[in-house]
Amino acid sequence: MAKKKKYDKITIEHGAGGEVMEKLIKEVVLNRVEKKVDGIGLHELDDGASIPIERQNLVITTDSHVVRPLFFPGGDIGRLSVSGTVNDLAVMGAEPLALTTAMVIEEGLDCGVLERTMESISNTAREADVDIVSGDTKVMERGEIDGLIINTTGIGLTKKPVPDSGLKPGDKIIITGSIGNHGLSILSHREGFNFESELKSDVRPVNHITGKAVEVGGVNAMKDPTRGGLAKSITDMAVKSGVDVELDEEKIPIKREVKSASEILGIDPMTVANEGIAVIGVEQDRARDVVEEIRKCDGAEDAAVIGNVRKGEGEVIMKTEIGGKRYVEAPAGDPIPRVC
Fold first, then answer.
1. In this structure, what CATH number is given to the domain that contains residue 95?
2. Average pLDDT, whole number, for the chain?
3. pLDDT digits (tens, 9 = 90+) for 259-280
4. pLDDT higher than 50, residue 168
5. Which residues contact 53 (CB under 8 A, 6 or more apart)?
6. Which residue, of 44, 199, 238, 266, has the fewest CB within 10 Å?
7. Domain boundary among 133, 158, 183
8. Is 143 among the domain residues?
């Protein structure tokens, strides 16, 4: 009897960054890929991979960007493509060196859109202090894709990679900015929702922020809270590290307009993608210094200690604003599709 397939069709949820996507990767991808080098590889499902080379570690990561619409409040697909890849390198503790950019373009796309996108890519690369060194261009027939897809691959160097699995009991959890801005801004713009205040994406490179944190010292783990949001990132970190994390809801920075929009739409901002912040696990005696230093960086003015790490088996518990407690679980997928 033929073995039954685990998946007959791929759904949008399989690319939404949550538990459904992770299950697909583990069952369809990882058991067909061998690990042949030392360091952090695909099987670790970190933000990137590291390859030891003499006294350094080469860090590499890749991302494909299918955001809709291509331009949105606070950013665009060009800024997103650079920031997303730079940030994956940054939370691995690497100094980004270079990016490649590959574009798949729909026939009939206005050339002005491509020019605006390339201008944004150039400006964001300059902001991140990284070079675009190679690329590729393909054109698909009209209707085969939705406008423009960009893939970026990045490389960086670090003496010591920072994994997402390095949390230790006693560590403090720091978030470098407010949550929920990116996903909710795209949803409101895409669907034409009008709120009292305009929502804007937080998309930006965070390498200068994470670099400052590493410079201060005591950083044991970092994560880029994109698809699946803070909920997915912090549960991944807890499970992989074999520890429990207790978060304080009152201390998690969230803008008033994001909180209002999420309540109206019935969306938990903890599960919404972010594109300009990082989650950092820091030794307790260094946490205050790290927060003070990174708050001096653009985009990290709202940085805060939001939780503690203790012995455990991978649970995340939230101390709520009303004094209760609830478990934080990884979402099945990001509630807002095509935000990155």
1. 3.30.1330.10
2. 94
3. 999 999 999 999 999 999 999 9
4. yes
5. none
6. 266
7. 158
8. yes
252 CB neighbour count, 10 Å cutoff: 20
Cα distance between residue 76 and residue 203, in whole Å: 9
- Boundaries of domain holding 96: 35-158
If asked whether residues 138 and 187 sit together in one domain, one would say no
Instruction: Produce one character per residue of 88-118: b if its CB has 16 or more CB atoms within 10 Å, e if not.
Output: bbbbbbbbbbebbbbbbbbeebeeebeebbe
Q: Which of 136, 158, 180 is the last residue of a domain?
A: 158
Instruction: Give CA–CA dist 209/261, Å, rounded.
Output: 28
pTM assigned to the model: 0.95
Q: How many domains does the chain have?
A: 2
pLDDT in tens, 55-92: 999 999 999 999 999 999 999 999 999 999 999 999 99
Measured distance CA(337)–CA(340) in Å, rounded: 8
* Helix, strand, coil percentages for the chain (3-state, nearest 5): 35, 25, 40
Residue 257 domain flag: yes
For residue 312, report the phi and psi dihedrals to the nearest 5 degrees.
175, -160
Q: How far apart are CA 124 and CA 119, in angstroms?
A: 9
Q: Is residue 305 classed as helix, strand or coil in its secondary structure?
A: strand
Under 8 Å between Cβ of 310 and 169: yes
